[in-house]
Amino acid sequence: MSQFYLTALQLSLCLGPMALGIFITMKVFNIPDITTDGSYTLGATVTAVLLTSHWAAVAVLPICMSAGAIAGFCTGLIHTKLKIDALLAGILVMTGLYSINLIILGRSNLPLINIPGIFNSFSFFANELYNQLLIAFLFIAILMGMLYYLLRTDFGIAMRATGNNPIMTQSLGINNDRIKIIGLSMSNALTALSGYLVSQYQGFADINMGIGIVITGLGSVLIADALRIWMNVKSTAAQIVLVLLGSLIFQMVLAFTLAIGIDPNFLKLTTALFVLLIVALPRVSRQLKKS
Description:
Blueprint: H1 2-14, H2 16-28, H3 36-52, H4 57-81, H5 86-105, E1 109-111, H6 128-152, H7 154-164, H8 166-171, H9 176-202, E2 204-206, H10 213-231, H11 236-259, H12 267-290
Antiparallel strand pairs: 1-2
């Protein structure tokens, strides 16, 4: 049973970059970005194709993140330059990415069994699972540190200001469109990184692996937001840590549902209901207090 929850912990770490990416779009820019479903799969397909072509896992990483950044750039361009709603722009790019991912992959599923990857490139422990956990944790720790540093720079402050009050930032001479495009590119680069990690951890890339994955990331961010309000957290560093904690809680809840014997066919339904519960509870409690 402990191995079961360790696996959930590993998956939460691999999905952590995606949760951080959704944190950027949802909490910094107030943009619901559906591109996530496509850029997650894009990261996995690029990774699978390059690894099976005998590329080193370390060399694949920047290419994978660049592919995700291009997807986010397209969404940002459609949203800002064509003045199309961000939600619709994300849906359009996500839909287009399905065909692109299928072209890159060449088939619906590509196995990565016995293919050298990032998790067996470095050996810290004899136990394979512990080794994978440490490598995934190092990835997420570096990303959290970089995101914390970025949000404290002048550019990061401009990002947050653009999300909070775009009229004010425009009056100060900040190019809101450029900031949004960069933010969406960063977010989808992080999402592609999750695809990179998960495909190697699971040992395959599948054309449908990204369907509904935005709900997982959104659930992690919503849990983090609920914890932030409950704990009255103000610091940026703590909020970033809470996003990772949200990802962990989300995966542990899903692991628990499987552990108690719920049919795996109901996993997506369980995910949707859990996210609905997270969103609905604070609103219901506020209405009860008013009445």
